[in-house]
Design a protein that fits this description.
- The chain is of the alpha+beta class and about 180 residues long.
- The protein has a single domain, classed as 3-Layer(aba) Sandwich (Aminopeptidase), CATH 3.40.630.30.
- Helices cover about 40% and strands about 25% of the residues.
- The protein has helices at about 5-10, 20-30, 45-55, 60, 70-80, 125-140, 155-160, and strands at about 1-5, 35-40, 85-90, 95-105, 110-115, 145-150, 170.
- Strands 2-3-4-5-6-1-7 form a seven-stranded mixed sheet.
- The chain is globular and about 60 Å long.
- The model has no long low-confidence stretch (mean pLDDT about 85).
């Protein structure tokens, strides 16, 4: 099931339904007041590759069903040619997280990849909210961002994505034809 978040809802983060996200982001900003969220540059390539390798060895073990090794490298190498957005978060000149996606031709957006270093509580929420704000700055008409699907049978990313209170979920079905 694909989760689609409402851009304005996530930018505002108002009400008790977003309390946990607000608290996590506030704690993160308090702990890392020098954090910078910016567009990636070509010279960030090696740091982005290193981030993915570190993620595979730490947080990636928790999410063993995520199989993005092939297209992660392709997106990072070719993001400009793909007209793909790559944003990074850094503190103390160290890249600590990244998020990618873009605005689609039909006027909505999608989030593709998100990786972070272990030990930065609230960074995931920070990345998603900042990404949402950047999409809105680029095109205020975008109303939804598709955060993608989650194939985990027991929650995992689904639970995390639900914290952003999706306004729309689309289900995917598979049809298998049998030869008789």
């Amino acid at each position: 099931m694909d989760r689609h978040i409402g851009v304005k809802k996530v930018m505002e983060l108002s009400g008790k339904e977003f309390k946990e996200i607000r608290e996590n982001i506030n704690r993160f900003k308090r702990d890392y007041p020098d954090v910078i969220f910016r567009r990636a540059k070509p010279e960030d390539y090696q740091a982005l590759i290193n981030l993915k390798q570190e993620w595979n060895q730490t947080l990636g073990k928790k999410y063993s069903r995520i199989w993005d090794d092939q297209f992660y490298k392709q997106i990072i190498e070719n993001y400009q040619e793909l007209d793909h957005l790559v944003f990074v978060a850094e503190t103390g000149k160290q890249l600590i997280g990244m998020v990618t996606g873009g605005i689609l031709p039909h006027g909505q957006a999608w989030g593709a990849l998100s990786k972070r270093r272990d030990g930065y509580d609230g960074l995931s929420e920070y990345l998603n909210v900042e990404f949402t704000c950047e999409i809105h700055k680029m095109d205020p008409k975008v109303e939804l961002i598709n955060l993608g699907s989650d194939s985990s049978p027991n929650g995992g990313l689904r639970v995390y994505k639900n914290k952003f209170r999706p306004v729309y979920n689309s289900e995917r079905y598979r049809l298998i034809l049998k030869n008789e």
